[in-house]
Amino acid sequence: MMAVRQEKLEALLNETRLFAPSEKFRHGANAGDPAIYQKADADLTGFWAEEALRLDWFKRWDEVLEWNSPWVKWFNGGQLNAAYNCVDRHAASLRRNKVAIIWEGEPGDARLLTYGMLQREVNRFANALKSLGVKKGDRVAIYLGMVPELAIAMLACAKIGALHSVVFGGFSAEALRDRINDAQAKVLVTADGAWRRGNVVPLKANADEALKETPSIEKVVVVNRVGRSGRAPVPMVAGRDVWWDGIIADAPVECAAEPMEAEDTLFILYTSGTTGKPKGVVHTTGGYLVGTSTTHRYIFDLKEDDVYWCTADIGWVTGHSYIVYGPLANGATTLMYEGTPDFPDRGRMWGIVEKYGVNVFYTAPTAIRSMMRWGTEWPAQHDLSSLRLLGTVGEPINPEAWMWYHENVGHTQCPIVDTWWQTETGMILISPLPGLTATKPGSATRPFPGVQVDILDEDGNSVGPGAGGNLVLTKPWPAMLRTIYGDPERFVRQYWSRYPGKYLTGDGAKVDNDGYLWLMGRVDDVMNVAGHRISTYEVESALVDHPSVAEAAVIGKTHDVKGQAISAFVTLKEGAQMSEALKEELKQHVAKKIGAIARPDDIFFTAELPKTRSAKIMRRLLRDIAEGRALGDTTTLADPTVIAQLRDQYESEGDAD
Q1: CA 598 to CA 539: how far, in whole Å?
Q2: Could you tell me the residue range of the domain that residue 556 belongs to?
Q3: DSSP states of 322-377
Q4: What distance, in Å, lies between the first and last C-alpha atoms of the chain?
Q5: Which of the listed residues 85, 607, 620, 649 has the most CB atoms within 10 Å of its CB?
Q6: In this structure, are strands 602-605 and 563-572 parallel, antiparallel, or unpaired?
């Protein structure tokens, strides 16, 4: 097994297939001059200042960059408003009647919102929030499926200077509760439910459960999504709950944009951390909007008449940056889809591409690998000739999936931009520029102009081609996180303490002899499951919460489709009986505590877990077992026989499966 993995790694670094952009694509590209890299390297602040001028500012900045590592200020002294830049300025231009948002519901219903219509809806909800007592600096939690009201609510918060905290609609009541309480949100925006593979996700019921322990929430706004189909109405709490339609009915359609300092917080977005406590990543207004709009325009080569579709959920940073803020700041037509790629059939996504004439398609390697399994007949049934550019996001894409995407979706005519970035980075940092970069299947190629990276060994030395190490960022970038909400010490400790002055990404990387970067995945205890970051500690805590479980250790295991699958090693309390039924019960328990995305793929019962003499669980040895690798150093184990027994058990049960 180890030899096979090593061969695959060597094959990646020795990848020789190069796909250069066509002359036609290069000629019309937004970034077609290679001097863009030299320009950004020679004058970092000048490069970003020029890009910032594409936005509308109420007051010009005093200084482009103030950098006292790890603390940064971009466009300090400048004033602007994100909603004004994403909506108002377009609604006041020739784009007023241009479609801003195309929305496709899972059952097949659809809506088109022009920039003029979007302005009206954002203003109405902004005024509705004001009527509920929301003011500048307040936090608003948003727990919705992929409906237009999600984007409208985000922009309405930005319009009046409130901070939004979007919680992925697949998360459980407990996960929602924890995020509301950390942010001390004043208002929650949710829905009666959301459609998912023909079933209803009970968002309001989950919210009601969460709100039993969220004292900061004063009001709940409920979108009527599934009730319109004749479903029974959900319970509403008198004095607390109000319907979205009702509260906006008489709301004024004019609302002035609140002038925001460039360094004022735009939103908080929670992501898993190695301690298990979700981290509230703080993004500010000016730098974030400059970074996301610039990368969106150049990397996706945006044209005025493009229909652009990022398939992510807005509950994750990809949706924030590349469904809402980046595209709308650029005056794009952005598509939102409520459902899954395989409902009602496995051709749904390709049917949407055909229906709306999508030009730019941005999705996850997880989705591509699933589509590979389903077969080429599904994309072949639809006219995909409108596509001119493809993208990937979420985790590294293997060359086989890259080639399948290239041949069966792009029909060898579409450049592929394989992008690397994080919740914390806010914007894409490593990616081809499609008019300039010859791409290699599986490589994110090189940093975006102005972005500086390095690969360091454990001692902080730069490694050469072929050697792996920790990916770090050596210069500030506009959309970088400013802190962790309420916990600046954790911000410094987690990202800036390992290599002072350098941002530790937590990802491993290698560079080949051509200078192309290859991302190798997480090096900490956060798993990347289908593009979603899940803390091992969070899953372990959920397992131990079950009355039968004494202890648990969780690791991420390589998975062909999801990137990583969750494997759990569990010791039971005295008297608890091992059984397949209990395994299933534990999987369901984790799904209830955290969400379905965190449900373990495998659970292995064991009498003991491998621990050091100081009682620390050695998860790296469990990963070695799961990946079929030779075991690393075992000298610090309190009982070396435990790991040998676990390996035999894992191999035996794996063979049985």
Answers
A1: 7
A2: 526-656
A3: IIIIHHHHTT-EEEEE-S-TTSSSTTHHHHHHHHHT--EEEE-HHHHHHHHHH-TH
A4: 17
A5: 85
A6: parallel
- Quick one: 523 exposed, middle or buried, by C-beta within 10 A (0-12, 13-18, 19+)? middle
Query: The pTM is what?
Result: 0.86
Q: Has residue 211 been placed in a domain?
A: yes
Chain segment 438-467, per-residue pLDDT in tens: 999 999 999 999 999 999 998 999 998 888
Amino acid at site 318? T
Query: Of 29, 16, 65, 116, which Cα lies nearest the Cα of 478?
Result: 65
Mean pLDDT of 521-542: 78
Tell me which residue has tokens 């004022």. Answer: 264
C-alpha separations of 361 from 339, 354, 389, 426, 625 in Å? 16, 12, 7, 20, 38
Q: Are the beta carbons of 544 and 552 closer than 8 angstroms?
A: yes
Count of the separate structural domains present in the chain: 2
The pLDDT tens digits of the residues spanning 135-155 come to 999 999 999 999 999 999 999
Q: For residue 555, what is the domain's CATH number?
A: 3.30.300.30
Are 403 and 312 a contacting pair, CB within 8 Å? no
- Kindly state the tokens that stand for 498: 């390992």
- Cα 310 to Cα 390: distance, rounded to the nearest angstrom: 10
- Residue 311's SS3 state is coil
Domain boundary among the residues 258, 283, 313 is at 258
CA distance 272 to 257: 33
Phi, psi of 74 (to 5 degrees): -110, 135
Give domain status of residue 213, yes or no. yes
